[in-house]
Amino acid sequence: MDAKNMNGVETSEEMIIPLPLSEDELAGLREEALTLEEGADLIRRLYPEINIIPNVKDTLIPIIPGITLYSYLRFFNAFPSVPAVDVYVNGKRVASDLKYRFFTDYYKAFPGYYRIQVFEAGTTETPLLVTFINLIGYRIYTVAITGTGEQAGLELINDSIRPLPKKSAFLRFVQLSASAPVMDAYLDDSLVLTEIDFREVSRYLTTSPGTHNLKMRDYISGAVLAEEPEMKLDGGSAYTVYIIGDMKDRVGLQILVEEEGITFLNF
Fold first, then answer.
1. Do 170 and 191 form a contact (C-beta atoms < 8 A)?
2. Other beta carbons within 10 Å of 205
3. Which carries the bigger pLDDT value, residue 21 or residue 235?
4. Are 21 and 114 in contact (CB under 8 A)?
5. Helix, strand, or coil here: 247?
6. CA atoms in the 13 A half-sphere facing the CB of 139
7. Cα separation of 162 and 171, whole Å?
């Protein structure tokens, strides 16, 4: 059945993210069973009683705004130890050659369980990490690949879905550098947030639109660890300041200021 034949309504066949796994399917997975997209036939032979990689072509779910329950999901490579990564979701490769500091587009995904595997780009034998996430409907998520060296991890970050008044800009901080010390955030030389630690996701701050100076300082010494001298914020927009990198490596500590999906996505 063609996905475009349902009165022009988008269907699950057009989605990048595959359908979610049930709890029973998740419990029955073998790690090695999801290493390759082309391993789907082998998986079905090993596990004929369950459908580990859902056949989206046979299951068309119409996506009707305001009615169908779904979320948005994007991947962010904040892992500086390899040049780029490939990301697999339920055995399907959804991101190829995702370079450090880069994001994928936002993808639609249905609520439920998903198996995530991350490999160094172009490889399929030894994953950098294997885990699962559980998505809730009507959410906007950023899935960040974090860590340093051989210690890769995954952070599921729930983005804002609150109304955004046009006269203000909204800003929060997410600390994803495992080697960085506890730090303070200064906006235009005023302390706005203190004691930001690894994996911390701050509350949202309201500020004026325009160009601002942002400094991240060591909580103990006050030394400037990273700076964004001309951070431009638009009214009616939400942003996340991602602190990434490895202070023990030439990569150093870095700041990325990224506009959040609530600014331009619709359900």
1. no
2. 17
3. 235
4. yes
5. coil
6. 17
7. 13
